[in-house]
Amino acid sequence: MELRISGPQRLNGSVTVSGAKNSATRVLAAALVTNGRVTLRNFPLALEDAKAKMSFLSGLGVEFEQRQDRSELMVTVPDLSLEDIQSFDLPIRTTYLLAAGMLARCGYARIPYPGGCKIGSRGYDLHMMVWRELGCEVEEKPDYIEIRGRLVGGQVDFPMSTVGGTENALICAAVARGETLIRNAYVTPEVRDLVAFLREMGARVKLEGTSLIRVEGDGALLGDASFSIMPDRIEALTWIILGAVTEGTVFVNNVPFDTMEVSLLHLRDAGVDLFANSDTVMVSPDCIGEHGVQPFELATGTHPGVISDMQSFFAFLGLFANGRSVVFDYRYPERIAYAHELAKFAPGAIEAEPGRITVHGPRRLSAAQVASTDLRGSMAQIMAAICAEGESRVHGVELALRGYNELPKKLAALGAEVVWRA
Ligand SMILES: CC(=O)N[C@H]1[C@@H](OP(=O)(O)OP(=O)(O)OC[C@H]2O[C@@H](n3ccc(=O)[nH]c3=O)[C@H](O)[C@@H]2O)O[C@H](CO)[C@@H](O)[C@@H]1O
Ligand SMILES: C=C(OP(=O)(O)O)C(=O)O
């Protein structure tokens, strides 16, 4: 899918941040461990990653009911049928989170190999470690990973900060028989959301500090739950940065400030002074002082710092800064393919090498034809096209739709004139 955009465009209007992709898609998998009915509010129903997971789960017999107008999703899980899975083609990252529900219901699981954005090495050995530590056997088959056994409590020691590993261990432990201790857990805001959801279903999860989690399970499925997905901090930052540089007045609603403090601090340090109340940010030309956006240097890494998924938006902001900005990414040093595409809007302004992107600003952007390489990179390219002089084409924007709920509607609400081509 291609997006054609004639710029530069000044954006005005208001946009409401949706439920977080990196919570909703996890909570959806965790809903498999209930024998009750789950109602998910603030659920990003149009998100491609959520739709892909729902479609796979429908094939296993999971029943969904949607209320589009209220962003609600009702989930009921009758018995799962794993023998008839026709295709294991599910190109999203968190397939491994489906294992807990399958194991708890069927005594075995068959899950697609984890996909997701191609942003460098993304192993899954720690997931296999989780299943094994909790009493199961794991076999890598040609088309899927098979896990067999009954989940029993155990001790999971992570050798590194892993979001996915922590989530997997949590969901498995919630339906395992006995106590599970998760050490060196990595508790991000989205992981906290998952913990809150598991508790809502009746799981006994105790956080001791931020890196030790104790889960008490009795080997049974959990109960009913009604839960509201947290707003997406990455989406919030996207609209704030876009609003700040397009010289209109943009209101961003439903901003989860407490989950993105460091990112907002970096924006302020760069001279972008936001107007904010309890959950709304207003950005207008007045937010940027008379000396313009200031160059900055920052490193993405683990929470509460700037996470890697926000990297491309800071690189984009660097194009408007008065001088040389540097963005380091220690977690995903190979996450630079998009930067080569972004550079086409300002030849010579961006140097990308593994782990480090240098941006020489300020630059007037000119139209370009670019290819999406990953979700956040695709969105940064759309932002650049809105700011660039002339008609740009961004190819492969289905990657952006993986992570931005109702993107066409939101761009239209901000007055962006864009043409979507299949
Ligand atoms: C710590 C971190 O920054 N996590 C990010 C990671 O989460 P995601 O959950 O995808 O990845 P993890 O946090 O689990 O993994 C972080 C690192 O550990 C490695 N690893 C992980 C699991 C495993 O079994 N073996 C293994 O080697 C990965 O290759 C990766 O380099 O990507 C997401 C999408 O960009 C981001 O939203 C998360 O903020
Ligand atoms: C890379 C991302 O997601 P995933 O882990 O689903 O590929 C992201 O959300 O930016």
Automatic annotation (TrEMBL):
Keyword Cell wall biogenesis/degradation: yes
Enolpyruvate transferase domain boundaries: 6-411
Reaction it catalyzes: phosphoenolpyruvate + UDP-N-acetyl-alpha-D-glucosamine = UDP-N-acetyl-3-O-(1-carboxyvinyl)-alpha-D-glucosamine + phosphate
Enzyme Commission number(s) of this protein: 2.5.1.7
UniProt feature coiled coil, ranges: none
One Gene Ontology cellular component annotation held by this UniProt entry: cytoplasm
Protein localization: Cytoplasm
Pfam families documented for this protein: EPSP_synthase
Biological process per Gene Ontology, one example term: UDP-N-acetylgalactosamine biosynthetic process
CDD domains, per the entry: UdpNAET
Single GO MF annotation: UDP-N-acetylglucosamine 1-carboxyvinyltransferase activity
Record InterPro entries: Enolpyruvate_Tfrase_dom (IPR001986), Enolpyruvate_Tfrase_sf (IPR036968), MurA_subfamily (IPR050068), RNA3'P_cycl/enolpyr_Trfase_a/b (IPR013792), UDP_GlcNAc_COvinyl_MurA (IPR005750)
Pathway named in the protein's UniProt entry: Cell wall biogenesis; peptidoglycan biosynthesis
Protein origin, superkingdom: Bacteria
UniProt KW keywords: Cell cycle, Cell division, Cell shape, Cell wall biogenesis/degradation, Cytoplasm, Peptidoglycan synthesis, Pyruvate, Transferase
NCBIfam families membership: PRK09369.1
Family that this chain belongs to: Belongs to the EPSP synthase family. MurA subfamily.
UniProt-recorded name of the protein: UDP-N-acetylglucosamine 1-carboxyvinyltransferase
Taxonomy of the source species: Bacteria, Pseudomonadati, Pseudomonadota, Gammaproteobacteria, Chromatiales
